[in-house]
From TrEMBL, chain A:
<dbReference type="GO" id="GO:0045254">
    <property type="term" value="C:pyruvate dehydrogenase complex"/>
</dbReference>
<dbReference type="GO" id="GO:0004739">
    <property type="term" value="F:pyruvate dehydrogenase (acetyl-transferring) activity"/>
</dbReference>
<dbReference type="InterPro" id="IPR001017">
    <property type="entry name" value="DH_E1"/>
</dbReference>
<dbReference type="GO" id="GO:0007124">
    <property type="term" value="P:pseudohyphal growth"/>
</dbReference>
<dbReference type="InterPro" id="IPR029061">
    <property type="entry name" value="THDP-binding"/>
</dbReference>
<feature type="domain" description="Dehydrogenase E1 component">
    <location>
        <begin position="67"/>
        <end position="362"/>
    </location>
</feature>
<comment type="function">
    <text>The pyruvate dehydrogenase complex catalyzes the overall conversion of pyruvate to acetyl-CoA and CO(2).</text>
</comment>
<keyword id="KW-0786">Thiamine pyrophosphate</keyword>
<keyword id="KW-0670">Pyruvate</keyword>
TrEMBL record, chain B:
<comment type="function">
    <text>Required for anchoring dihydrolipoamide dehydrogenase (E3) to the dihydrolipoamide transacetylase (E2) core of the pyruvate dehydrogenase complexes of eukaryotes. This specific binding is essential for a functional PDH complex.</text>
</comment>
<comment type="subunit">
    <text>Eukaryotic pyruvate dehydrogenase (PDH) complexes are organized as a core consisting of the oligomeric dihydrolipoamide acetyl-transferase (E2), around which are arranged multiple copies of pyruvate dehydrogenase (E1), dihydrolipoamide dehydrogenase (E3) and protein X (E3BP) bound by non-covalent bonds.</text>
</comment>
<dbReference type="InterPro" id="IPR000089">
    <property type="entry name" value="Biotin_lipoyl"/>
</dbReference>
<protein>
    <recommendedName>
        <fullName>Dihydrolipoamide dehydrogenase-binding protein of pyruvate dehydrogenase complex</fullName>
    </recommendedName>
</protein>
<dbReference type="InterPro" id="IPR045257">
    <property type="entry name" value="E2/Pdx1"/>
</dbReference>
<keyword id="KW-0496">Mitochondrion</keyword>
<comment type="similarity">
    <text>Belongs to the 2-oxoacid dehydrogenase family.</text>
</comment>
<keyword id="KW-0450">Lipoyl</keyword>
<dbReference type="GO" id="GO:0016746">
    <property type="term" value="F:acyltransferase activity"/>
</dbReference>
């Protein structure tokens, strides 16, 4: 997995996909004080919540806005391509949950580790994959982050250990990443192991909690509670929907996941907490997804359309940040609109590139590569029948 | 790293990208992975209406369901191509044009509609062909089976169906079977030598144990080839010698039977009909009333007949196919036996003279002629229909069950 991540980063930089280096404002360093609402945090076994007042710069705020808009555009592009039947198979979109991916990424360093479940496009983008590489991955193109072999669920970049397809299985792996940081004495590095409210009832999550607390691993167990699992409301599947209390012996912090500034401050606090020897932390980001669980779920059979529209119009993370920026007078409505359009144009351009990228060659070499770290392959890998056996040329 | 650049913004954003679209085509969406076409039930917006993300803009129907289609983004409905009630629209066909909010739909450029395969909707046949050609080319190499990098011998496919002994040069890209591998090691033959010297009779140049044994002289040289030929011969079901039954054979009885009806069975020296006779002791029923006795016996006969049918059914087994049994069995409604019951003349009690059912079931002749029916017994004559195979067995089953039913209520 390590190699795959490293190689895909190399690939993306070689192709020069990164078009995110355009700047936002001259006075990007202009500071402002953010005051969060009282109800942004709820704590469990924590002495005090993260400070509600903190400083941010104009540049940071605008960048957050731009990233969130881009992630949303990316997801909408994936949605459109899926509905045009160009993307096949699994596809889980995070429309509405952008604040979590963007907010966490802003609060941590590139050296920290992130691992999440299959709703991973936003995290992959924030961890350095380009829109083109992500869309190409979805389309099964060679230029995708995982060479088109992983698809929606399996995207890796440096410091991002994937999209994982098995519900909840990424959490013990995340604890392992945290253990690696501790074992290698990489102080100051934290791991975010994210999972959904549906996965939070998986037994392996509690096993990971136990080991993380036992060894005081710098691991943040972050539950993205989007209120609905696959087809069912959280309250219908979970005996305790206060997911931040699920750690029992691990302190918990519930964050308003629809407000990116709360997410940012909460994630910053969590990193601080875990990297100062206080052991793990269980977080709950209360958020909302606008779409269905996956592409085969219309998302309106277990909740009302009115509820979704209410969340869109009252709680949208992008609109929320937009209001903040306008209030602080950091940008005008038109300027933000132009950011929207630029993000859309960028995504459209990258999607067009990804679509024009060639499909992988149908050869055995392409099929069997990347199974082993180069140089460690066995002489032969079996195919379905003996005549499909693949022999590595060493 | 570009990451740094990204975080430190520098100049004021003056975005120079030209507006890519003023209006964009809205294609028939695939609302489920298996949907290929659908119809429009109704549009929820009219041309010129504004809508915001998440609003339902139209309702479509597939062969499975009616689904609301939500807008992904804020916009204005600029033009609707496919009207309410239109059916069988391919996924990907343009059904409408959507503009951005605030656009004046009267003045904006409307892009040409597109069909599902990416062609512009206007029917330009010449262009179509040009588009098709590269597609074909791209497809052509795709189905190539993953081949092994080492020179997989081309001969394997050409020589496989050849007649002579099925032997071919061994395919060097094979993983040796454990039996072959151990045999080679035991006899000190290297893998390379084996590939070079030993002829393979397995499929696709695969070395089999027999090939090695033949090479070592432990089995006759020709035997692996003979075995391979035999396997090849027997691995195909040869139906060439099966011919449908001639109609005339099946139809003969209906036509010819009329005339020779009497003659045909007569030639078989008409065997005496087999009659089983059973005397059933009914004394314990105390049948004061004849009708009551008859009712009981009739009921018992009915039950026994049913039981006999059930018991004669073949055991449940993977080898027994009820449909097949029905085809080869006697036609429905065929009588296996006739039952005749003679009731005692009087209800006056008399000693039973002990007709033994064992005799009947063991097919022995009853010891007494069944002319006089003793007053406390019922005589049951079962005439077996000898034209039906298995009828005798069925008749015995019937009698057995009849006795059971007449005694069980004791």
């Amino acid at each position: 997995m390590l190699t795959a991540a490293r190689r895909s980063t190399r690939l993306t930089s070689r192709l020069g996909h990164q078009v995110r280096a355009y700047s936002i404002a001259d006075d990007a360093d202009k500071k402002c004080t953010i005051t969060l609402k009282e109800d942004s945090y709820t704590t469990y076994m924590l002495d005090s919540p993260p400070p509600l007042e903190f400083e941010m710069t104009k540049g940071e705020l605008l960048q957050m806005y731009k990233d969130m808009v881009t992630v949303r555009r990316l997801e909408m592009a994936a949605d459109a391509l899926y509905k045009a039947k160009k993307i096949r198979g699994f596809c889980h979109l995070s429309t509405g949950q952008e604040a979590v991916a963007v907010g966490i990424e802003k609060a941590i360093d590139h050296d920290d580790s992130v691992i999440t479940a299959y709703r991973c496009h936003g995290f992959a983008y924030m961890r350095g994959a380009s829109v083109r590489a992500i869309i190409a991955e979805l389309l099964g193109k060679r230029t995708g982050v995982s060479y088109g072999k992983g698809g929606s669920m399996h995207m890796f970049t440096e410091g991002f250990y994937g999209g994982n397809g098995i519900v909840g299985a990424q959490v013990p792996v995340g604890a392992g990443l945290a253990f690696a940081h501790k074992y290698l004495e990489q102080t100051g590095k934290a791991t975010f192991a994210l999972y959904g409210d549906g996965a939070s009832n998986q037994g392996q999550i509690f096993e990971a909690y136990n080991m993380a607390k036992l060894w005081d691993l710098p691991c943040i167990f972050a539950c993205e509670n989007n209120k609905y699992g696959m087809g069912t409301a959280a309250a219908r599947s979970s005996a305790l929907t206060q997911y931040y209390k699920r750690g029992q012996y691990i302190p918990g912090l519930k964050v308003n996941g629809m407000d990116i500034l709360s997410v940012y401050q909460g994630a910053k606090f969590a990193k601080e907490w875990t990297t100062h020897g206080k052991g793990p932390l269980v977080m709950e980001f209360e958020t909302y997804r606008y779409g269905g669980h996956s592409m085969s779920d219309p998302g309106t059979t277990y909740r009302t359309r009115e509820e979704i529209q209410y969340m869109r119009s009252h709680n949208d993370p992008i609109s929320g940040l937009k209001a903040h920026i306008l209030e602080l007078n950091f940008a005008t409505e038109d300027e933000l609109k132009s950011v929207d359009k630029a993000a859309r144009a960028m995504v459209d351009k990258e999607v067009a590139l990804a679509e024009s990228d060639p499909a992988p060659e149908a050869t055995a070499k392409v099929l069997f590569e990347d199974i082993y770290v180069p140089g460690t392959e066995p002489p032969v890998i079996r195919g379905r029948i003996p005549s499909e056996d693949y022999y590595f040329k060493n | 790293m570009n990451r740094l650049l990204r975080v430190i913004p520098r100049a004021r954003l003056l975005h120079t990208t030209p507006r890519l679209y003023q209006a964009s085509n809205f294609a028939m969406p695939a609302m489920s992975p298996t949907m290929t076409e659908g119809g429009i039930v109704s549009w929820k917006v009219k041309e010129g209406d504004e809508f915001s993300a998440g609003d339902v803009i139209l309702e479509i129907e597939t062969d499975k369901a009616q689904i609301d289609v939500e807008a992904a983004d804020d916009g204005v409905m600029a033009k609707i191509y496919k009207k309410d009630g239109d059916k069988d629209i391919q996924v990907g066909d343009t059904i409408a044009v959507i503009a951005e909010p605030g656009d004046d739909i009267k003045t904006i450029d409307i892009p040409a509609p597109v069909e599902s395969d990416g062609k512009p909707a206007p029917k330009e046949e010449a262009k179509e062909e040009v588009k098709e050609a590269p597609k074909e080319e791209a497809k052509a190499p795709a189905p190539k089976a993953p081949s092994t990098p080492k020179e997989a011998p081309k001969t394997e496919s050409s020589s496989a169906p050849s007649s002579s002994g099925y032997s071919a040069p061994a395919n060097p890209a094979q993983t040796l079977l454990p039996s072959v591998s151990s045999l080679l090691v035991a006899n000190g033959i290297s893998k390379e030598d084996a590939f070079a010297k030993i002829k393979a009779t397995g499929p696709h140049g695969r070395l089999l144990k027999g090939d090695i044994l033949a090479y070592l002289g432990k089995v006759p040289e020709g035997s692996p080839g003979a075995v391979a030929d035999e396997i090849n011969k027997r691995s195909h079901l040869d139906l060439s010698n099966i011919k449908p039954a001639k109609k005339s054979d099946a139809a003969a009885p209906t036509g010819a039977a009329k005339a020779g009806d009497a003659a045909a069975p007569a030639t078989k020296a008409a065997p005496e009909p087999v009659i089983f006779t059973s005397f059933l002791d009914v004394a314990h029923f105390e049948p004061e009333d004849q009708l009551e006795l008859q009712r009981i016996v009739k009921q018992a006969i009915k039950l026994a007949k049913y039981d006999a049918v059930e018991l004669a059914k073949p055991r449940r087994s993977a080898n027994v196919d009820p449909d097949f049994e029905a085809i080869i069995g006697p036609a429905k409604g065929t009588k296996f036996y006739d039952v005749n019951v003679i009731y005692p003349k009087s209800t006056k009690r008399a000693l039973s003279n002990g007709a033994d059912l064992y005799d009947i079931l063991s097919d022995r002749k009853p010891r007494k002629a069944a002319v006089q029916v003793p007053s406390n017994t019922v005589q049951v004559d079962v005439t077996v229909n000898d034209k039906v195979p298995g009828a005798e067995k069925r008749a015995k089953l019937f009698l057995n069950r009849l006795e059971y039913h007449l005694t069980v209520e004791e």
